[in-house]
Amino acid sequence: SRSINLAVIPGDGIGQEVVAEGLKVLSAVLPQDVKLETEEYDFGARRYHATGETLTDADLDALKRHDAILLGAIGDPSVPSGVLERGFLLKLRFAFDHHVNLRPSKLLPGVATPLAGEPEIDFVVVREGTEGPYTGNGGTIRKGTEHEVATEVSVNTAFGVERVVRDAFARAQARPRKKLALIHKNNVLTFAGHLWTNIFNQVAEEFPEVTTEYMHVDAATIYLVTQPERFDVIVTDNLFGDIVTDLAAAVSGGIGVAASGNINPSGDFPSMFEPVHGSAPDIAGQGKADPTATVLSVALLLRHLGYEAEAARIDDAVAADLSERTGKPARSTSEIGDALAVRVAG
Amino acid sequence: SRSINLAVIPGDGIGQEVVAEGLKVLSAVLPQDVKLETEEYDFGARRYHATGETLTDADLDALKRHDAILLGAIGDPSVPSGVLERGFLLKLRFAFDHHVNLRPSKLLPGVATPLAGEPEIDFVVVREGTEGPYTGNGGTIRKGTEHEVATEVSVNTAFGVERVVRDAFARAQARPRKKLALIHKNNVLTFAGHLWTNIFNQVAEEFPEVTTEYMHVDAATIYLVTQPERFDVIVTDNLFGDIVTDLAAAVSGGIGVAASGNINPSGDFPSMFEPVHGSAPDIAGQGKADPTATVLSVALLLRHLGYEAEAARIDDAVAADLSERTGKPARSTSEIGDALAVRVAG
Ligand SMILES: CC(C)[C@H](C(=O)O)[C@@H](O)C(=O)O
Ligand SMILES: CC(C)[C@H](C(=O)O)[C@@H](O)C(=O)O
């Protein structure tokens, strides 16, 4: 008999609320014969204030034993910027080698977009997750003086670039349009840019059916608002991926519906699924948060674990729910979760 | 009697055509008593192919003697990516210490935007121009092998950050809304991020009338499409500035109307003014390019040299021209230039 042993990290702010709904929908969609075990972990601002810890080796050992991780959100204004980001979120992505950061963008019928017209948006960004300017390399000298110098080092390896580029080509190959765009800034960041571009072109030879294009990151932001239908699969580095996926979320319905997976395709470590949005402390605890992004992250999680039919049921339920929202009164976090749970079970 | 001694760099592709119109409007707007001298320089792809040179020390000496530089566009697919960008454009910005890269975004009446509704967009980005990931620091080892490692080093100094932050505060102070946003990614790029944030907060104390906010670059892309009216002045680093100004141009009428100044406020070296768009080789030589961004760059140039009334006349002429475009047949590059020249003279 099948089972899913899930680590659950509600985290800070609205994380608690949205994760509860994600689990509700997960339980509702799973077939009877699949045994779902969940273990909750208390990470984030509360733990940091209580113990000074963000993520210990013992924590990593414990998390490692799960099949996957569902995360709500981490972050609180009471904690200095960077402490939880570097000390928890990025530490986990790096420790578990989450090199494929998967972020689909699909504008569903009935969903509002800030763009004029009715653009067709349906693409997925494969963001590298373990290299680039996110490595924490760099430093500061003469801190706080008028002679301070601060550096940030973007580290890019053939190994790291090739595996994520290969993953993106495989995803493009599996989609009807079979298109892949590399986003970088190879006219300025020539060292990293040439590495990315060369490997991209090399791997392209193994995927003759995939149509490729290269685009500078600045130009990409223009296309994302003027021709978003142009994109099918995008592969890009950690920082550019961070930027373009927030913009992609904004044009395709907002971060209320943007899901993501921090994936280790080798399976050596559990992958982690989380909404793209943050902890939104201003609306926390009020039942106002939209759990849809978390529910869609649960679908990514199920797909990753091989439950394709169940993932599709969630996607369909969300699409149906969103298409019926216009003109209706706003629902609470748990009302939306209830509605989705009913739909996926029915 | 007054005079302007201008270096003119038409460059590649549509650069030639749009610069001709920029000069036409400049001649038309200048009072009789101002003597305009122009000297044309042949930089870009043609020169590179003929001589292998992009920008020599002798070129820099010659350019240095001018009051300002007007640039069309540099870049051609026949030249490998990075050669002209690093070898000419960035070399010039760095050699002449163009640390204030000024990019206004204003959505003028009658101009199309990809955004729904009728957002009010009127802000200016002060992009740092001589530091950050643009320094060319970094390198490659084991090039072309499976063990290649490529690094890019972002260099940030208290000196470099403070002067551009100070410039941005002064600009915010001089505007009616007096708002300044710092855009960075200080939760991940903590070394550079803390330097920027600390200096921003320190300088803020000297400008108590300016309302400040901090925003991560990823979140900024969301606000640029959902709440662009939120922005008044933005200050940011070289790479983030590159990205957000292309997005800003896209939402405020497109790169056909986006102007920029590469400014050295000390006056030790001439400042350079250029449209944000590139050389667009696909439409070069056909009279299809819109010279408006170049004409608006001429206005920035005049304002920088102290010709405020003339700059304002150009801005007004462009606004009037744009407001009357809807529904009319497309005009050629020189027809648009002629129309603007008539307006500014009238
Ligand atoms: C919170 C932050 C560290 C994170 C990132 O930059 O990756 C977030 O913006 C994201 O996109 O998941
Ligand atoms: C061409 C390139 C070097 C340049 C930059 O990145 O600064 C351009 O994109 C710009 O914004 O002026």
From TrEMBL, chains A, B:
<feature type="binding site">
    <location>
        <position position="127"/>
    </location>
    <ligand>
        <name>substrate</name>
    </ligand>
</feature>
<dbReference type="InterPro" id="IPR023698">
    <property type="entry name" value="LeuB_actb"/>
</dbReference>
<feature type="domain" description="Isopropylmalate dehydrogenase-like">
    <location>
        <begin position="5"/>
        <end position="340"/>
    </location>
</feature>
<comment type="function">
    <text>Catalyzes the oxidation of 3-carboxy-2-hydroxy-4-methylpentanoate (3-isopropylmalate) to 3-carboxy-4-methyl-2-oxopentanoate. The product decarboxylates to 4-methyl-2 oxopentanoate.</text>
</comment>
<feature type="binding site">
    <location>
        <position position="242"/>
    </location>
    <ligand>
        <name>Mg(2+)</name>
    </ligand>
</feature>
<dbReference type="InterPro" id="IPR050501">
    <property type="entry name" value="ICDH/IPMDH"/>
</dbReference>
<protein>
    <recommendedName>
        <fullName>3-isopropylmalate dehydrogenase</fullName>
        <ecNumber>1.1.1.85</ecNumber>
    </recommendedName>
</protein>
<keyword id="KW-0963">Cytoplasm</keyword>
<comment type="pathway">
    <text>Amino-acid biosynthesis; L-leucine biosynthesis; L-leucine from 3-methyl-2-oxobutanoate: step 3/4.</text>
</comment>
<keyword id="KW-0100">Branched-chain amino acid biosynthesis</keyword>
<dbReference type="GO" id="GO:0003862">
    <property type="term" value="F:3-isopropylmalate dehydrogenase activity"/>
</dbReference>
<keyword id="KW-0520">NAD</keyword>
<keyword id="KW-0560">Oxidoreductase</keyword>
<comment type="similarity">
    <text>Belongs to the isocitrate and isopropylmalate dehydrogenases family. LeuB type 2 subfamily.</text>
</comment>
<keyword id="KW-0479">Metal-binding</keyword>
<keyword id="KW-0028">Amino-acid biosynthesis</keyword>
<feature type="binding site">
    <location>
        <position position="103"/>
    </location>
    <ligand>
        <name>substrate</name>
    </ligand>
</feature>
<dbReference type="Pfam" id="PF00180">
    <property type="entry name" value="Iso_dh"/>
</dbReference>
<keyword id="KW-0460">Magnesium</keyword>
<feature type="site" description="Important for catalysis">
    <location>
        <position position="134"/>
    </location>
</feature>
<dbReference type="InterPro" id="IPR019818">
    <property type="entry name" value="IsoCit/isopropylmalate_DH_CS"/>
</dbReference>
<feature type="binding site">
    <location>
        <begin position="278"/>
        <end position="290"/>
    </location>
    <ligand>
        <name>NAD(+)</name>
    </ligand>
</feature>
<feature type="binding site">
    <location>
        <position position="246"/>
    </location>
    <ligand>
        <name>Mg(2+)</name>
    </ligand>
</feature>
<keyword id="KW-0464">Manganese</keyword>
<feature type="binding site">
    <location>
        <position position="218"/>
    </location>
    <ligand>
        <name>substrate</name>
    </ligand>
</feature>
<feature type="binding site">
    <location>
        <position position="218"/>
    </location>
    <ligand>
        <name>Mg(2+)</name>
    </ligand>
</feature>
<comment type="subunit">
    <text>Homodimer.</text>
</comment>
<feature type="site" description="Important for catalysis">
    <location>
        <position position="185"/>
    </location>
</feature>
<dbReference type="InterPro" id="IPR024084">
    <property type="entry name" value="IsoPropMal-DH-like_dom"/>
</dbReference>
<feature type="binding site">
    <location>
        <position position="93"/>
    </location>
    <ligand>
        <name>substrate</name>
    </ligand>
</feature>
<keyword id="KW-0432">Leucine biosynthesis</keyword>
